Amino acid sequence: MDGSPKIVLPHGGFKNLIAYRKSDAIYQGTVIFCRRFLPARGDRTVDQMVQAARSCKQNIAEGSAASGTSKETEIKLTNVARASLDELLEDYCDWLKAHGSGEWAQDDSRKMAAREFSRQHADWGDWKELFETRPPETLCNLMVVLIQQTKFLLDRMIAAQEADFTKHGGVRERMHAVRTAARGEDWDKGVYSWLDSAATAEELASRVESVKRQAEHAAWSIRKRKGWQR
Q: Which of 49, 106, 194, 214 is the most interior residue, by most CB within 10 Å?
């Protein structure tokens, strides 16, 4: 396997992410909820809820696509996705309050069943029938659970992305590493060619000593720069 530094890291594949699949279910479910239970015209809440749900899904996708060249962008967009869920969660909780309904308690059997269902089902096809048939109070509470679990997954994604950024750095750092590696390879070839062109064994030995002195000087500079001097 080629161990040389890479500028563009592996990226994409967002459709396989559980967080993305759940975000798609959140978006599709929100569209149906708004269509069934909110006014078709004159209510800005509809646009706000649909846009917040879409923002989560799209920012996960865009962050995944950008991750190959910009870990900073990936982290930023994943945070935007999470913030969109915070906004959407508030809308669903507001609907429950405005209609005299409460959020299911943590020990409510319906809440526990919803958590288990959400843990086992990430795809919209598993949720579609529920959103097309259940009453709004039930759907709001189901969405609360689904959003909370997706936020948890996004928190884990952000932590992993930050760790990856710490390990690999940004695109400028990777480009520098690639250039440095390339210069090192060129130096190796140049040194070998210079040694190989020696006309006698004595001249070869003299050139080897010269290379050693240059290498020692380079090592001294590196130790000084990295604070390894005693």
A: 49
Residue 81 to residue 101: CA distance in whole angstroms? 27
The CA dihedral of 150, 156, 159, 164, to the nearest 10 degrees, is: -110
- Interhelix angle for 71-98 vs 18-37, to 10°? 30
- Do the beta carbons of residue 117 and residue 193 sit within 8 Å? no
Give 31-69 as a DSSP string: HHHHHHHS-SSS-HHHHHHHHHHHHHHHHHHHHHHHTTT
**pLDDT digits 0-9 by tens, 66-79:** 876 778 888 999 99
> How many whole angstroms separate alpha carbon 62 and alpha carbon 14?
9
> Measured between alpha carbons, how far is 102 from 104 in angstroms, rounded to an integer?
6
The radius of gyration computed from the CA coordinates of the chain, to the nearest angstrom, equals 28
pLDDT of residue 72: 85
C-beta separation of 151 from 19 below 8 A = no
HSE-CB at 67 with a 13 A cutoff on CA atoms is 25
Residue 76 is encoded by which pair of tokens? 């930023």
The stretches in the chain having pLDDT less than 70 are 1-12, 68, 168-188, 229-230
